[in-house]
Amino acid sequence: MDPCPFVRLTVGNLALKIPVASKPARSVVHPSSSPCFCKIKLKNFTLQTAVVPYIPPENNQFPEGQAQTLAATFHLSKSDLERLVAKSIFAGKLCLKISIYTGRRGTTCGVNSGKLLGKVSVPLDLAGTESRACVFHNGWISVGKEANKGSSAQFHLNVKAEPDPRFVFQFDGEPECSPQVFQIQGNIRQPVFTCKFSFRNTGDRNQRSRSLQSEPSSSRSWLTSFGSERERPGKERKGWSITVHDLSGSPVAAASMVTPFVASPGSDRVSRSNPGSWLILRPGDGTWKPWGRLEAWRERGSSDGLGYRFEFIPDTSGCMSAAGIVLAESTLSSHKGGNFLIDLGTNYNGRSTPGNSNSPLCSPRSSGDFGYGLWPYCTYRGFVMSARVEGEGKCSKPSVQVSVPHVNCTEDAAAFVALAAAIDLSMDACRLFSQRLRKELCQDRDLLG
Q: Low complexity bias located where (predicted)?
């Protein structure tokens, strides 16, 4: 089945230069000593914020050799494109609007701390961008009150749209109910996988799941290597496992809870300092091989969300000590849910602010303090995948989008489906232990919370 058309609209290569005033006012915050930022808005999409680097005013060109950084990314489905193009006909030209500020981001007593320098509007014509790339702007724009007098501030940016086709999958039920998984293409729904939720035998930590047939000893050693052998008295949720099968019934991916989700001492929540974790597995060479590791916990504070961290485990010819490469680390709202996102092309710091569930890492980094040493082993670039999950207490049938370049076989797609199931189940695993879980998730009465 063909993938679904998507368009990736990006804003990048930001820079700002401001002419030096002959008599600088003390009250003016100058970007050379204080950071600048901008707010980027596209109709009906979430406002995005990015830092704007300052460069000396004598530079006439965008510095060559500087990293081509992305400040914001908008993912547009076919329905998004149709809606935006239709609106541009009746409501004037569709534009990307950018507000540039000097000073630090944030608010004080409800008032924005940054000072508005100026606004930029970039016209967009998205028709046909599902099949061809289009650059809408690349270069400098004058901003501020002196924009027409030749002595204004200059703002550099690149705005472009590129085709980004994706495979779309939809769970037909909640992962703990062992649902089918459909591939979606327009109005066509085609079954491609089935999921089997089960409990690992809690009396044998080396037995991963009753839903899998016999496993070679090498696969069991991976589980003990990446999992925790801790056994603590008190409240814990453990032993969950979900296996993804193709239509022939062969297992093609799995997610196994290798570290129990345990309430921190004196509380009823899973803490960031002691998270639960899943191992995402793929078949290979007659055994199961680890592909990724997902950690999850319950954030404290006003966000009170699901914190997560996913790291890719590169295949380094059986090297058991290979460090993982962190591909995503952020927070989802426990109440509203959100999008679990792996996007290696957006220039964020990897940690989201409250309410922002889509802050990915700017580039992979090793969990073993090796910097980019393992980066050659990671083949993922740009948008990789997203999975929509619902908040606590809501019926969640995760939808999964995977970029076409990252799917070369059935096992590739199945691994992302297993990861989506794991992040969805983590929403339940990280529920406060004062709350009850649904019966499908409870092997014993003491797991009810």
A: 209-221
Confirm whether 1 is domain-assigned: no
Q: Could you give the CA distance from residue 255 to residue 294 in angstroms, rounded to a whole number?
A: 9
**Residue at 398 is within a domain:** yes
Cα–Cα dist 200/228, whole Å? 14
Cα–Cα distances (Å) from 32 to 55, 103, 114, 139, 253, in that order, read 8, 10, 15, 21, 51
* 367, 346: one domain: yes
Tokens 């070679």 sit on residue: 216
pLDDT at 96: 96
Which of 163, 180, 210 is a domain's end point? 163
What whole-number percentage of the chain has pLDDT above 70?
71
> Which of the residue ranges 52-61, 272-281, 338-347 has the most confident prediction, judged by mean pLDDT?
272-281
* Position 253, amino acid: A
Percent of the chain with pLDDT over 90: 53
Q: Do residues 99 and 189 share a domain?
A: no
Query: Which segments within 131-232 are labelled E, that is strand?
Result: 134-143, 153-163, 166-171, 180-185, 188-199
Task: Give the helix ranges, DSSP H, for 227-313.
Answer: none
Same-domain check for residues 183 and 287: yes
Q: If pLDDT is split at 50, 70 and 90, which confidence band does 151 have? A: low
Residue 56: the pLDDT is: 81
Total structural domains within the chain: 2
When the pLDDT of each residue in the chain is averaged and rounded to a whole number, the result is 79
Task: Look at 318 and 413; give whichever has higher pLDDT.
Answer: 413
pLDDT of residue 425: 96
| Residue after which a domain boundary falls, among 117, 147, 163 | 163
Residues 264 and 132 in one domain: no
217 sits in which H/E element: helix 217-226
Helix (H) or strand (E) holding 107: strand 107-108
Three-state SS at 429: helix
Q: Which two tokens stand for residue 415?
A: 């691994």
